[in-house]
Amino acid sequence: MKYPGICCILLLSAYSVFGETCQKPEITASAYVTEDATILTNVAFTTQFTLKCSNGVKDISLYAECEGKSLPAVRLSTDNKYQVSWTDDVKKVRSGDYSVKLYDEESYAALRKALRNGEDPESVKPLAVVTLNNPGVYQGPWINSELLAVVLAVVVSYAAFSAKSKLSA
């Protein structure tokens, strides 16, 4: 190698470009939650968001954490659009707000280290937090239509036989 100084400068400049962290992140998010679970066993949660950094950093690898689950944030396009999706059992799902905490590689490594060492994971500050609202999951009517039809048939039959027996007597 004739130019070790140039190689070092190129390596350091590449590190500074790829190793930058997002400063003052701004998130624009939308969300979707399965609301009709009459025939489903799992409820799907999806949040799609755009990340804007004040220092112009793009193409960051993001990770998410929600309700104790670690999830990857999938990059959808080069203009910093991401998506986080997961499913959960219908019986375990609650209505209300879910906080999806987003971490870059550095803070996600710190989160995993805190979990491994038995430390409080809340001590690791996320890059940003996306709130996903679940209005509730419809699991069908309280009484099945078949049961209601049988009950109504019994009531109508009883009323008809009672009226007939009063007329006959």
TrEMBL record:
It holds the Pfam family TRAP-delta. It is found in: Endoplasmic reticulum membrane. It comes from the Eukaryota. GO terms for cellular component: endoplasmic reticulum membrane. Residues 1-19 form the signal peptide. Keywords: Disulfide bond, Endoplasmic reticulum, Isopeptide bond, Membrane, Signal, Transmembrane, Transmembrane helix, Ubl conjugation. It is a single-pass type I membrane protein. Its main location: endoplasmic reticulum. Belongs to the TRAP-delta family. TRAP proteins are part of a complex whose function is to bind calcium to the ER membrane and thereby regulate the retention of ER resident proteins. Heterotetramer of TRAP-alpha, TRAP-beta, TRAP-delta and TRAP-gamma. This is Translocon-associated protein subunit delta.
